[in-house]
Specification:
The chain is mainly alpha-helical. The protein contains five helices and two strands, in the order E-H-H-H-H-H-E. The protein has a single domain, classed as 434 Repressor (Amino-terminal Domain), CATH 1.10.260.40. It has a two-stranded antiparallel sheet with strand order 1-2. Helix 2 packs across helix 3. InterPro entries: Cro/C1-type_HTH, Lambda_DNA-bd_dom_sf.
Length: 66
């Protein structure tokens, strides 16, 4: 299967909306949607780092290998 993005699960646990997260990340809601729906082919480490900072989590909470 490959890499699975569990961003929606982490967002639900932290009770943060897509709109709020995209604003805090500085990316468009469309790009966040691509990431959330496993359509992204890559993610920048700077974006992953900022996600972890905002959501107060570890990269392994967001990304999973199956």
């Amino acid at each position: 299967m490959g890499i699975i993005v569990n961003l929606d699960v982490v967002m639900a646990k932290r009770k943060i909306s897509s709109t709020e997260l995209s604003q805090k990340l500085g990316i468009t809601p469309a790009n966040l949607s691509i990431l959330k729906n496993n359509k992204a082919k890559a993610i920048r480490f700077s974006t992953l780092e900022k996600l972890c900072e905002i959501l107060e989590c570890q990269p392994g909470d967001i990304l999973e290998y199956k």
